[in-house]
UniProtKB/TrEMBL annotation:
Domain TIR positions: 151-285
Annotated localization: Cytoplasm
Keywords, comma-separated and alphabetical: Cytoplasm, Immunity, Inflammatory response, Innate immunity
Primary location group: cytoplasm
Species annotation: Poecilia reticulata (Guppy)
One Gene Ontology molecular-function label: TIR domain binding
Protein name as catalogued: Myeloid differentiation primary response protein MyD88
One BP term from GO: positive regulation of canonical NF-kappaB signal transduction
Listed GO CC annotations: cytoplasm; plasma membrane
Gene3D superfamilies in the cross-refs: Death Domain, Fas, Toll/interleukin-1 receptor homology (TIR) domain
Function per UniProt: Adapter protein involved in the Toll-like receptor and IL-1 receptor signaling pathway in the innate immune response.
Database matches in InterPro entries: DEATH-like_dom_sf, Death_dom, MyD88_Death, Myelin_different_resp_MyD88, TIR_dom, Toll_tir_struct_dom_sf
PROSITE patterns per UniProt: DEATH_DOMAIN, TIR
Length: 288
């Protein structure tokens, strides 16, 4: 590829850098069954998925998206560069050429976000009395002390607005009890006026030990939740550090997200285990 690839090693760029638009267009190209051109099954096979796994993916409404999500979740080497190589290997250079501008733009935005996270804010000469800053951003949550103390949390709560009532119950059960945990709830803890994506990445990666993902039908339609989940998974491929904890609190009509199906779920909908729900969740969050 030209453009971004001439300056950046795409093999070092995780799949989370590709936004919803690119993923949808990949589906448009690969989901239809072709008699000549390679489709999603050829891509999945090249990625290392078994025959049975590929047959199971045939029931998915968007098999390309499911394959990409599962590949990123279980393969630490999954990257934008590797995906491009696979497309070229199955002789779908037409897709690479058509999507190149969009991929380049997504990679550029991803690198800009990473650069902003890594660099401390620029000190203006006139303000020479400021306390030296650490690479972590400060002044983004309510209890931050700008320039010195950054607020830390036991867990980042990934949720959509329609599930906020359950988040409030979570605060009551986990913070205002003997568990005494500290949760990062975006609407409560984050100060207004910041770049949503940059601040979210900072909180998930550096400020929170774990992330609770509140799964619901509405969650599946949320771009913000999609970004947060995939970003957290990119930090711990295969969930080796037990970083993500999926929670289901109400019945769903849509399929459970395939990208999280390899994780143990904390299920509030099962009456027979409701009595243990908060205990299990609290102990999981309290682990070192």
């Amino acid at each position: 590829m030209d453009g971004t690839d001439s300056k950046v090693n795409l093999g070092s760029i995780p799949l989370v850098a590709l936004n919803v638009t690119v993923r949808k267009k990949l589906g448009f190209y690969l989901n239809p069954k072709h008699t000549v051109a390679a489709d999603w099954t050829a891509v999945a096979e090249t990625m290392g998925f078994s025959y049975l796994e590929i047959k199971n993916y045939e029931t998915s409404r968007n098999p390309t998206k499911t394959v990409l999500d599962d590949w990123a979740a279980r393969n630490s080497e999954a990257s934008v560069g590797k995906l491009v190589s696979i497309l070229e290997e199955v002789e779908r250079k037409d897709i690479v050429e058509d999507l190149q501008p969009l991929i380049d733009e997504d990679v550029r935005k991803y690198l800009e976000t990473q650069k902003k996270k890594a660099e401390p804010p620029v000190q203006v000469p006139e303000v020479d009395s400021c306390v030296p800053r650490t690479p972590e951003r400060s002044g983004i949550t309510v209890d931050d002390v700008p320039g010195s103390i950054t607020e830390m949390f036991d867990a980042f709560i990934c949720y959509c607005q329609s599930d906020f009532e359950f988040v409030l119950e979570m605060i009551k059960e986990l913070e205002q009890t003997e568990y005494n945990l500290k949760l990062c709830v975006f609407d409560r803890n984050v100060l207004p006026g910041s770049c949503v994506w940059t601040i979210t990445s900072e909180l998930i990666e550096r400020r929170c030990k774990r992330m609770v993902v509140v799964i619901s039908d509405e969650y599946l339609d949320s771009d913000a939740c999609d970004f947060q989940t995939k970003f957290a998974l990119s930090l711990c491929p295969g969930a080796r550090s037990k970083r993500l904890i999926p929670v289901v609190y109400k019945s769903m009509t849509k399929p459970f997200p395939s990208i999280l199906r390899f994780l143990t779920v904390c299920d509030y909908t099962r009456r027979c285990t409701q009595a243990w729900f908060w205990v299990r969740l609290a102990k999981a969050l309290a682990l070192p």
